[in-house]
Amino acid sequence: MKKRTISILLAGAMTMAAVMGSTVTAFAGEEDTLEFYHGYYHDESEWPAAKVMRDIYDEFAKTHADGEVKFEPIAVENRDEIVSAEVAGGNFPDMVDCGLPLSLAAISQGLVLDLKPYIDENNLQDAVGLNYTQNDVDGHIYTVHDQLESRGLWYNTEVFEQAGITAEEAFKDWESFGVAMDKVHELGGDTYGYAAGQGSRYIINAVLASTEEGRELLKGELTPEGIESEAFAEAFKTAAKLDQANGSDHTTEDVGNLMDDFNKNGKAAVLFNGVWNASGIDAGLADKIESQIFPGNVSVVTAGSGHSISANLSEAETELALEFLAYMVSPEVQAKIFTGVQANPCNTTLDLKALAEESGDPITQKLAEACTQVNSAETVVTDLNYVWGSDVGSAIINALMESAVEGTDIDARFEQLKQELTALVA
């Protein structure tokens, strides 16, 4: 098909040319080129996983260099802005590894290809894994993410031993967790329970997952009725009371600000983070840090947005785009994503333990254990930030951070939060 010009939105891609060691033009390619926009623009020294993903893309492009349609992966910092601008004009890029959820406008205008028929015809249900259910929209699938954003928690066994607690005791339920963190607090010095604030949002997520009413709230956008629900009140107040006992000195809007306290310095007993945290653990602490799912046998695993294809490609371009999708969820590529990107792959047929043992890397073995735990949790729910939106998520984090201050009236702050959220969802 005749390619469109993506205008100045590709300026971000051009600035990455030096980093990538290649030239990216601001205008679309030739008629026989399938353009694939992705967000792995980072230098290898900044984020090694980005180089792994680019190599995967480049390998596919290389093997199809002589085909009827060329495959061109394009790394950009602003992929979601590109999608938004195209959709506003009634178009959609050839293919994108989306970062944000697809807009209803893109779907309602028929701009995005339904991937479900291809998945079903080629028996790729296990290959796409959680995407098959979480990304189902009224019997259609418009996006497939090749890796799952998977969250549980990590804990320091040495700190637990010093505090006289066991993982079994601490993670039985949230009340037991609070008791365990109180014992950690009693150790004094620089040692503390956990990095609260952004991390505490996952307490809310997990508490909601523990009840039928709460799980229903996590299946769609937050509504005024959801804001007023008992399930939401219980979830917020549980997290806020734990945070206040944990102390305001250990709260942050970005858990990355306090990550070294857990991964490198051994000050924090617990870290709420994804399976990928395995790669950030200091070698000196590797034998002391273990993974765990949330109390109540809960994990937060989100397929999220990923590969989406324009519904207006030529037959040959569509065929190549779908072939690339199958390539990305294939066992061979998924194994690279697991070992090289240190992420939870979407393909459920992989033996992660065997792959980790084959690698001989202790960190990859910890990653395998963490992935297995989150994937096999009794209750698996989506990240509330994905279904309710980042604005709602930010408002909740702000309320949690303020609630962590000693003396704050948590009930009053919750009433204020309800007003803020009602205005946001109106």
Description:
With 426 residues, the protein is α/β, with parallel strands linked by helices. It folds into two domains: 7-144 and 304-345, D-Maltodextrin-Binding Protein, domain 2 (3-Layer(aba) Sandwich); 150-301 and 375-425, Periplasmic binding protein-like II (D-Maltodextrin-Binding Protein, domain 2, 3-Layer(aba) Sandwich), CATH 3.40.190. 47% of the residues lie in helices and 14% in strands. The chain is built from 23 helices and 15 strands. The strands form four sheets. Strands 6, 7, 10, 11, 12, 14 and 15 form a seven-stranded mixed beta sheet that branches. The chain has a four-stranded mixed beta sheet with strand order 2-1-3-13. Strand 1, helix 3 (48-63) and strand 2 form a beta-alpha-beta unit. Helix 11 runs parallel beside helix 15 (230-246), helix 19 runs antiparallel to helix 20 (362-375) and helix 22 runs antiparallel to helix 23 (410-425). It is globular and about 70 Å long. Keywords: Signal. This is Raffinose/stachyose/melibiose transport system substrate-binding protein. It holds the Pfam family SBP_bac_1.
